[in-house]
Every structure is written in structure tokens, then in C-alpha cells.
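USER: Fancy drafting a protein?

ASSISTANT:
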Amino acid sequence: MGIPVFVIAGFLESGKTLFMNDTLSDPGFSNGKKTLLFLCEEGIEEYDEAELAKVNTVIVPVEDEEAFTGEFLAECNKKYKPERVIIEYNGMWRMEKLYNMTMPRKWEVVQIITTVCAATFSLYLNNMRSQVMEQFSDADMVIFNRCLPDTPKASYRRSVKAINPRCEVYFENADGSPVQPDESLPYELDADVIEIEDEDFGIFYVDIMDDAEKYDGKTVAFTAQVYKSEQLPSGVFVPGRFAMTCCADDIAFIGIPCRGDVILVNRLKKKQWIKIEAVVNCEFDPREKRMLPVFSAKSVESCEQPKEEIVYFN
């Protein structure tokens, strides 16, 4: 039986400790297991070691990044013999350090949760974008807390989903109560043909990858570039766009596989600009273990490059 490791990421004052205090006080989570909690950053919120002892939890402070090594974890594993491990990670330490660390035998990272203070998210995004996105890229769950009525929740959600489509994203008000983002879309889902404007492709891509089934059987039209590869089956290409998912140095092609007439597909050239109209089909992807969209081309026409070649997710 493995020892589950939970990683709680996020910048200082993002709500990591508050989240863990609430979680550890939940009998459904604590259930008496010996828990080892590594505290790699101290903020305003503090742990009550007496209360932690009641739920069989031992806290180990880590003040120096250099001291947080695989050897240190092995020593703690031998000393405390935990049945479960929680790492409240320092927001200024690169996640890559943790991912590359050799953990003790039987330790297995089972969940990565990133907490975000909605009030300061834009500030961090503008000044430390790559580090913010690193905390999102492998997260299983992202929690935006301390939301206000004017918090652009839908935009924040897309910022996460753009680089990690499988991640669950949640929002909380200042009092901890859950709140849902405004899911309004800049196009009409019930239209006979859903026209996706160039500036809305990022929004469309995130939404269809997140909830493909609501597009099942619908017809969409948009401007795209052609991606072709010998690894794709005959008669399949990928219409999509280049998108900035993190920063100017992190531009990637995003698109959805499309089936079409073999002769037509063979005539298409890589990076050719096209106007495509296609029907959306939902199919189960065994690797992702969920339903994902696949296009069936109805019409494909060559077109001019749009004014803005790069897609954003705002």
C-alpha cells in the first residue's frame, strides 16, 4: 500500500494554511491516519500544533529551500513513519524542484492543489506569469478564494484551463462560500452554425475541451491554420491556432482533430489558412479517460491570414 502525498501550492497569503486547517479538521479526511505535514512557508495564518495532534498530524517546518531534499524526506519518513504526507509548498520555489525530487519508497503524489487569492491574482499574473502558470500546469485542482462581485472569474478560469484542461477550478467568496463563474459565451450555442470570431477562438477552445458534450452534433465555423503529420490517420488533419498559453516565449499550437475527404486533406498544406465549417462529434479518449471533440469537415476553403495571428484566452 502506497503512502499518498498531497501537494498544496500557491504564493504567500494565497490561502494554503487556511485550506489545510479546514481540511485537517474534517473527520472524513483525517480518519486517524498518521499525517506528516511539511510547512515550507509561514504566512499570517498559523497551525495550532495541539489541534493537529488531535488529528494525528505532525508538522515539520522547512525554512531553507536547500534543506528540502530527497534525503531530508527520507530521514523524516524514517523518523515519523507517516501514513499520509502533505507538503505545503513555498510559492517562490519552482515546482520543477519538487517534481524532480527522489521521494522515499512508497511515497506517491496523488493530488496537487493550488490556492489563489483572487484579489492579487492579476498582479502575480502580470509580474510572475511563468511561475504562476507553472503552479497550474500539473495541478489537479485550483481554488480561487476571496472573490469579490467584480472578480472576472470566467477569465481566470480560462487562464487555468488554457494550459491544463483536465484541472478542476473552483471559486470561493471571502466567507468561504462557493461561487460559480459567469459562463456566458461570446457566440450563440443554439445557432444553426456557430460562428467563432478570431478573437474568440481561445474561449471556444477552452470551453469545448472542458465540456465537449454540449457541442455534440453542432456545426461550428472558424478561421484556422492547418496542422498535418504522418502520425495522423489518412484523411485527418488538425485545424487550430497558435496561442500564448503562458508568456511570449510559450506559444503553442492548439487545435482539434478533423476528419475529411482524403483527397481534400491531401491537398491542404501545413500552416495554410482556411475557413472551415465542421460538425462536432464527441468520442471517448482512453488516454484522457473522458469525452473529447472530433470534427467532421463539411467545407474547407482557403482564406487570408487574420490581423491577429496569435490567440489569447482573456
Notes: The chain has a mean pLDDT of 92.
